[in-house]
Amino acid sequence: MPTWRYLLKMACYKPGLYALHAVLWGVFGLTALLAGLLTRAFFDTLTGHAHLPLGVTGLVVLMVVLAVGRVALWLTAGFIEILMRFTMSGLLRRNLLRYVLKRPGAQALPYSIGETISRFRDDAHEAEDKLDWSDEIVGQGLLAVGAFLVLLSINSLVALVTILPLLIVTIIARRASLTLGRYRDASSQASSQVTGAIGDILTAVQTVQAAGAEERAVARFRRLNEQRRKAMLTDRVATQALSAITSNAVSVGTGLIMLLAANSLRESSMTVGDFALFISYLSFIADFTSDLGRFLADYKQTGVAFARMNVLLNGASPDALVEATPLYLRGSLPAIASPVHEVSDKLALLEAKGLTYYHQQSRHGIAAIDLRLRRGSLTVVTGRTGSGKTTLLQTLLGLLPREKGEIRWNGKIVDDAAAFFVPPRIAYTAQVPRLFSETLKQNILLGLQENPQAVLAAVRGAVMEQDLQTLEAGLDTPVGTRGVKLSGGQIQRTAAARMLVRAAELLVIDDLSSALDVETERTLWEHIFAHEDATCLVVTHRRAALQRADHIIVLNDGRIDAEGTLDELLLSNEEMRRLWQDDYGNEPE
Ligand SMILES: Nc1ncnc2c1ncn2[C@@H]1O[C@H](COP(=O)(O)OP(=O)(O)OP(=O)(O)O)[C@@H](O)[C@H]1O
């Protein structure tokens, strides 16, 4: 989609605001032209070339009134401009966030976290900037043409000769715009790499320390900073050089006016007022030409910014970026509806046939997996590391986009698994749970309406009661960034409580065992299966769960190697026997 269409669609989001912005700045420009005419009248009255009824005093009063009016107009237009800028970049950022949240959750973002933030911040700002300029440049252009026509009517020769340097500069600026765009692109890339590196280093301080890689991390950071310094310097020098050429063109123009006007002044074909008007309008026209040059140079860059933001839309049409969406900038936000249990949500049977997904980078994954989960059953998925257990859960839940396969909930086909498999139908605990830097309770509720009894029941279910006593403020203890104040086991049990509080029809659990001791995990399973209706799909290698399982699926290299009960599999399947003996042999039965 061409850049102008993005800008047009942004303007159409709030056409009234955009039009008001255009009118206010247009009128502001017009007052600059009026000021020029008043200056001309002032000097002509002083030199006796004009005889206005207002007189010099009247003109001075008028100029003061105009100046005050301009200040008021500038403040009003500035306020509207800020409002419009926030609204327009807010629209882009909201749509970006919507699509980032819509993408299959287990698929990595196309940029690092730091770079993604830079797309949200810098690219949305770039687009906002260009929209702000788009109407101003048109208004400025119309007024500049008007100003030029006035100058032509006074003295066409002087007008044409003085405008010449500006035209030459405009052509140079147009030519330079491609090169400037390249420099700007390089400096923006270099900045986002630095932001990305800061994000990476800050989120992996422990890893960097443990690997003794501080020096190398700092050296890489220095290298990226040096690249950024060079790119920024080139960009700034080129931009400033162009701006110097443009502003000097005004001085050259003024010099030409002085040379040419001297004769006309002597011959009285030009008045001192005309001369003052020429000087005033010339800078007005020059401002327009230099702004136009910058606008054209930046326009290319804005296209690059839109293209980069598009990458975050995960294949959605480019229109999605500028789609009209409510922003709620004023007043309270709409209430978030709590999930409601519908009769159709009640699980009787969940079936999946032929589930297939291969990770893009490695081409590893799962193929042709069939599942049947009945109400009240425990299904365990097991297999050696890398056999595809996590990929299977994520593909079923729509966190990865399945390439083939069909899913049915109570016989009805599920098209959009990601939208369908949410509470109260399912609740999921990932292998590596994520906590936010909020209190323990907020991490468990994650936006759900508070129900103290349900929270306590979930905490008990997740075997966390004892832990609460050791935390300084119990459930109200802030857990720190990503839960750093909790142990690995506490983080996993918090995630389990988060799942349990949602009272979902189906619990999907990916390997809770890595940070839980055998006894704690055994108690956790007992709590979960105390509800006879509990339906669970669990990835685990723990005997406590395998022995309770109604059905076990053994995965090998992304395919089902065998399935059945533990006894059947121990008799018939070599892989199960190997896993049971080799991997689980150290645990108490
Ligand atoms: N994001 C990814 N990109 C590319 N390949 C991946 C990705 N995630 C997993 N894989 C590959 O897909 C295969 C299955 O991985 P998966 O995480 O599903 O295995 P798993 O059985 O859950 O392993 P574990 O028991 O170690 O958790 C592995 O070969 C793995 O290397």
Entry summary:
The protein is α/β, with parallel strands linked by helices. It has two domains: 3-322, ABC transporter type 1, transmembrane domain (ABC transporter transmembrane region fold); 343-583, P-loop containing nucleotide triphosphate hydrolases (Rossmann fold). The chain is built from 18 helices and ten strands.
Topology diagram in text:
Blueprint: H1 3-13, H2 15-46, H3 55-102, H4 113-154, H5 156-203, H6 205-210, H7 214-266, H8 272-311, E1 349-358, E2 365-374, E3 378-383, H9 389-396, E4 404-409, E5 412-413, H10 417-420, E6 426-429, H11 440-445, H12 452-461, H13 465-470, H14 488-500, E7 506-510, H15 518-529, E8 535-539, H16 543-548, E9 551-556, E10 559-564, H17 566-572, H18 574-583
Helix pairs in contact: 1-4, 2-3, 2-4, 2-8, 3-4, 4-5, 4-8, 5-7, 5-8, 7-8, 12-14, 17-18
The structure holds adenosine-5'-triphosphate.
Question: Please, could you describe this protein's structure?
Answer:
With about 600 residues, the protein is α/β, with parallel strands linked by helices. The protein folds into two domains: about 5-320, ABC transporter type 1, transmembrane domain (ABC transporter transmembrane region fold); about 345-585, P-loop containing nucleotide triphosphate hydrolases (Rossmann fold), CATH 3.40.50. It contains 18 helices and ten strands. α2 runs parallel beside α4 (about 115-155), α12 packs across α14 and α17 (about 565-570) crosses α18 (about 575-585). Adenosine-5'-triphosphate binds near residues 362, 364 and 391.
